[in-house]
Design brief:
- The chain is of the alpha+beta class.
- It has helices at residues 8-34, 39-42, and strands at 45-46, 52-53, 86-95, 100-105, 111-115, 128-135, 140-147.
- Among the domains are: 8-57, no CATH class; 86-147, OB fold (Dihydrolipoamide Acetyltransferase, E2P) (Beta Barrel).
- The strands form 2 sheets. Strands 3-4-5-7-6 form a 5-stranded mixed β-barrel. Strands 1-2 form a two-stranded antiparallel sheet.
- The longest helix is centred in the N-terminal third of the chain and has 27 residues, at 8-34.
- It is elongated and about 130 Å long.
């Protein structure tokens, strides 16, 4: 007598697929009968506090907002504010062997790239420096970099280098 080609596992898989297909068909029929999948049920509203609600907002509470008053991200810079072209900063990193580093601008707190070709004097990490900013290929770059020297007060005369001899 020949054995059946249908094994227990094959029957089990076929029965599961059939059961799944019937369940899917039943869900589809119940959705059609209930008719709750309308667009109106999917709409959500945002109230004045930023919370999602299912009720539309009251048109009497509507406020007019000027488009210019909306600020997204960074506020626009003031065109009247002129930055000093000669900046002051601290060398946060400098690699002598590779010839580059970074300066932290004391005024804006942004990091500016510096290359050894743009140095007027040798610098090292922690030095206070004066520099100018130019836009390089990959962003702001420091040029004309030199060590910062405290300006001397105008009211105090400089000590004489040689004593004067009066006749």
């Amino acid at each position: 007598m020949g054995r059946s080609q249908e094994t227990f596992n094959k029957k089990e898989v076929r029965n599961k697929k059939e059961k799944k297909r019937k369940e899917k068909e039943m869900k589809k029929l119940t959705r059609k009968e209930n008719d709750k999948g309308s667009f109106e049920d999917m709409i959500a509203y945002v109230d004045e506090n930023g919370m999602l609600t299912s009720t539309p907002p009251d048109p009497t509470k509507k406020k007019a907002i000027k488009l210019e008053d909306i600020e997204i991200s960074i506020p626009k810079s003031d065109p009247n504010q002129v930055l000093d072209p000669i900046r002051k900063g601290t060398v946060t990193f400098f690699n002598d062997s590779k010839g580059y580093g970074f300066i932290r601008d004391l005024e804006t707190q942004e990091s500016v790239f510096v290359h050894v070709n743009n140095l007027l004097e040798p610098i090292k990490e922690g030095n206070l420096v004066n520099f100018e900013v130019e836009m390089g290929q990959k962003g702001p770059t420091a040029v004309q970099v030199k060590l910062y020297k405290e300006p001397k007060p105008a009211g105090v005369p400089a000590p004489p280098s040689e004593p004067e001899i009066l006749p």
